[in-house]
Write a structure and sequence with these properties.
Strand order of the largest sheet of chain B: 1-2
Bound molecules: adenosine-5'-diphosphate, magnesium ion
Shape of chain A: globular
CATH superfamily of chain B: MetI-like
Structural class of chain A: alpha/beta
Shape of chain B: flat
Largest interface: A-B, 33 and 24 residues
Number of strands of chain B: 4
Helix content of chain A: 25-40%
Number of domains of chain B: 1
Strand content of chain A: 15-25%
Number of helices of chain A: 12
Distance between the termini of chain A: 34 Å
Structural class of chain B: mainly alpha
Order of helices and strands of chain A: HHEEEHEEHEHHHHEHEHEEHH
Distance between the termini of chain B: 35 Å
Order of helices and strands of chain B: EEHHEEHHHHHHHHH
Radius of gyration of chain B: 27 Å
CATH class of chain B: Mainly Alpha
Largest sheet of chain B: 2 strands, antiparallel
Strand content of chain B: under 5%
Oligomer: heterodimer
Strand order of the largest sheet of chain A: 6-7-8-3-9-10
């Protein structure tokens, strides 16, 4: 891959020739916020799917959530940005604190929580009728943030750069989002999530629908972003978890019992020297 | 094209390779259903075609006799040999457009409320309520319009003509500011008929719009929500762009319904054969109401004239509905995010 040119491009924009207007507008401290889940439980109707999950996700860190299907990883992730409550019949207990503030506290606005805690879904979901550039700035339109023409161009370039897509789409920013390949669409979704300057970025199996090359691009993107935002990523791929994350948590659910965290800690330790025998079994691929 | 055969390793046998004939694997029960469905489908087409042919055939004498005057003459005076549909065409369009003007925003908002705002528990109740609205016979809407709506609607009409009377369409040929105002100048107008017809157009448009709104991809909805969008934001960025075709199609279906509505219009309007833009003023006429009102005591030639008017209405509604179907069908394709 042409990583060298990539570096050069990123460097040149970081110098701020083109995106000067934008960087003035960007007040939020890069590095992200601390996100803490405290004794979180979740239900769909009468069925409890998560029981008493606590996890701290520090700033500028990639946290990987691993575990077999159906153990509640997606549910947990969606609780972290209040998407869980959009499912009819969904309930939860516990707290989610963003820099110490409970996002579920009365008076907290759900739109604000979601804006601060961005999300990338398993299946790429760009707005198909919108152009690539409009897709990137759609979050601003959705949250009624006005931005001048020049700033907008800078923002589009900045976000596409950070998502590692700029080079591939810079000549067709007006084309609809749906013409891109799956991997490009997913990176467009990352760029779109970055445009509203989230403090945390949640990713639910972002590579599971993608080919190895696109997967590697996205992993590079995650590595580049990890110094700027707190990242929480669900993945089925042990190597991927190993490659991208600094901290990992293993979710398991017993037969008909709600899911929960079995072990969590620095990724290196979880993979090489797990405490719980179930973790050893899982990371070695003996079940799951 | 010829391809080297693979019969034996040594044999350099060259045979033209032809595709095998494939017969779609249908079970006997499939054949029966296929036959039934085809028969029903074709007979529906045949009936529609036959109606068109019948009306067209019946129109020949009238069109021969009156020629183009049938479309330019506004009087309907068979005794004086003056027959034309210019005024009723205008009246039909006015009533239908007023109905659309009122029903479009209401149907759109109600459909959006059902799919995107209403709590899931009451969603099915609201759907049934709209379906019930569609099930009410039009004569009931006519009576409702005449006895319950009209006494209040004339106040609105007077208010409109007071403040917007300088616009030709809101003008009424009476003094709106008179101490004792002329109520009969405002009754039986295209405006009031249009209001009653809108009640019948709403459920139709609403049902189509709701069905299309519900199909807006969940992935895109969640994307908009996860970016911090409000419900209205989700509707604006995802649902409405996705449903554009369904909105247009549903509106046109409702327009087709409004153009042909008879009973309610017949009850409400005071018949008048005059091309006029003054929708608030008493007196108008539509094609279907004209036919219904004069069918009973028509002579043979008058009957032919009425059927010709019916033929024109048939062609208009057929065009509108076909356009609606095309728009709805087009809108479904290529609108989702599938990769
Ligand atoms: N919308 C839903 N309604 C009911 N049950 C659900 C829903 N979504 C997920 N579940 C259930 O919750 C459990 C956890 O699901 P999920 O969080 O998607 O697991 P994972 O992402 O780890 O594969 C599963 O048993 C699943 O069947
Ligand atoms: Mg999942």
């Amino acid at each position: 891959m042409t990583t060298a040119t990539d570096e050069a491009l990123i460097q040149s924009t970081a110098d701020g020739q083109i995106m000067s207007g934008w960087s003035e507008r960007a007040p939020s401290p890069r590095g992200g916020a601390r996100l803490e889940a405290i004794e979180v439980s979740a239900w769909f109707g009468q069925t409890q799917v998560l029981d008493d999950v606590s996890l701290s996700m520090p700033p500028a860190t990639v946290t990987a959530l691993i575990g077999p299907s159906g153990c509640g990883k997606s549910t947990f992730l969606r609780i972290l940005n209040r998407m869980h409550e959009s499912v009819p019949g969904a309930q939860l207990a516990g707290e989610v604190r963003l820099n110490g503030e409970d996002i579920y506290a009365p008076g907290q606005r759900v739109t604000r929580a979601r804006k601060r805690i961005g999300m990338v879904f398993q299946k790429p979901n760009p707005f198909p009728a919108m152009s690539i550039a409009d897709n990137v700035t759609s979050g601003l339109a959705l949250t009624n943030i006005r931005i001048s023409r020049g700033d907008r161009r800078g923002l589009v370039e900045d976000c596409l750069n950070r998502a590692g897509l700029w080079r591939e789409v810079k000549d067709r920013l007006g084309a609809p989002g749906s013409v891109l390949s799956g991997g490009q669409q997913q990176r467009l979704c990352i760029a779109r999530a970055l445009a509203v300057e989230p403090e945390v970025l949640l990713m639910d199996e972002p590579c599971s629908a993608l080919d190895p090359t696109s997967t590697r691009r996205i992993e590079e993107t995650i590595a580049e972003l990890s110094s700027q935002v707190t990242i929480v990523i669900v993945t089925h791929n042990m190597q991927q978890a190993h490659r991208v994350s600094q901290q990992a948590a293993l979710f398991l659910a017993d037969e008909r019992a709600p899911g929960g965290i079995v072990e969590c800690g620095p990724t290196e330790q979880l993979f090489s020297n797990p405490v719980d025998p179930r973790t050893a079994d899982y990371v070695d691929g003996r079940f799951g | 094209m010829t391809i080297v055969g693979n019969g034996s390793p040594q044999g350099v046998q060259i045979t033209p390779r032809l595709p095998r004939r494939l017969t779609p694997g249908r079970e006997p029960s499939d054949w029966i259903f296929h036959g039934l469905a085809t028969t029903v489908g074709l007979s529906v087409l045949a009936v529609t075609g036959a109606i068109g042919l019948f009306l067209g055939y019946q129109s020949i004498p009238t069109l021969r006799h009156y020629g183009w005057h049938f479309f330019t003459q506004s009087n309907w005076l068979p005794e004086l040999n003056q027959i034309g549909i210019a005024a009723v065409l205008v009246g039909t369009a006015e009533v239908a457009l007023i109905a659309m003007f009122v029903s479009f925003p209401l149907a759109l908002m109600f459909a959006l409320f059902i799919t995107d705002y209403a709590p899931p528990r009451i969603k099915s109740w609201l759907v049934s309520a709209v379906d019930l609205m569609a099930a009410v016979p039009s004569i009931i809407y006519g009576l409702w319009g005449f006895f319950l709506l009209q006494p209040h609607a004339i106040d609105v009409a007077r208010w409109l003509s007071q403040y917007l009377g300088w616009l030709p369409i809101f003008h009424v040929d009476t003094d709106p500011n008179a101490a004792v105002w002329q109520q009969s100048s405002y009754t039986g107008s295209a405006f009031i008929a249009g209001l009653a017809v809108s009640m019948m157009a709403i459920p139709l448009a609403c049902a189509v719009m709701r069905a299309v709104f519900d199909q807006a991809p969940l992935g895109e909805r969640e994307a908009a929500m996860a970016l911090g969008g409000t419900r209205f934001g989700v509707a604006r960025t995802v649902v409405l762009p996705f449903a554009k075709g369904g909105i247009i199609g549903g509106t046109m279906l409702a327009l087709g319904r409004a153009l042909g509505e008879t009973a309610a219009v017949l009850i409400i309007i005071s018949p008048e054969y005059l091309i006029k833009a003054r929708i608030l003023e008493a007196g108008t006429q539509t094609i279907s109401a004209l036919i219904a009102a004069n069918f009973g005591d028509a002579t043979t030639s008058q009957l032919s004239a009425l059927l010709t008017a019916g033929f024109v209405l048939f062609l208009i509604t057929l065009t509108v509905n076909t356009c609606a179907a095309v728009v709805i069908r087009r809108s479904r394709s290529g609108a989702s995010t599938d990769i």
